[in-house]
Amino acid sequence: MKLSTASAGTKLTFFLSGELDQHAVRDAARTMEMKIEASLPRDCVIDMSGLTFMDSSGIALVLKTYRRMMELEGRLWVENVPSQPMRVLDASGIERLVPVTELAGKE
Amino acid sequence: MKYENRMRLKFPSRSVNESFARSAVAAFIAQADPTLEELGDVKTAVSEAVTNCIVHAYPDGIGEISVTCRLFEDGTAEIRVSDTGRGIEDVERAMTPAFTTGGDDRSGMGFTIMESFTDLLKVRSKVGRGTTVIMRRRLGRRKP
Fold first, then answer.
1. Cα–Cα distance between B108 and B96 in angstroms, integer?
2. CATH classification of the domain holding A27
3. Is the pTM of this model over 0.90?
């Protein structure tokens, strides 16, 4: 899995690509935690447009980021979610906590 | 029910093998002409079952994971994921959504995902002996 970040003002965006599973999640979580601590953003976005696979490890990653953003009194969105990761997020009911938008023009 | 084809994999419980296991199962069931959604669902369920073995069955070391897959005449795939690890004391509790002993890198949603992405899920476990997860999913049910 690959993770890149973009920062603009008080907004921090994480771009995830490749396959997100338990093997990949630990490094991703650590990097995201460090980036959040370094910039203390008000708004945080997890962009999943590049993900080709995600299992429940992705739910844990979103939850962990959500908890940290709540501590910072900030906000979190999950954006551009392809269809397979979307089914996993749907099954988890995480949309009750975090706004989620699907990737437009999905297959 | 008569099966048409089967395969078996054995591999050590290294997390790098999660991707190998779900891709191998996906490649095998492709012959039943699944939809993209069915393929994604089976890959996800296999990933959850194999991750459980790696995280929970063998928490302090490396053990063996076995995955068998059978394809039946009616297009049903049956996947068994087994370990000989520490086993689950209370299966019902382990299957409760958001219950986990895996720390904050785990969501506790593994069994919930397996349940929602398959037609049938059975979990057999003995403490100290290991766990077998049996999942069935009917494939190739395309909308007309």
1. 8
2. 3.30.750.24
3. yes
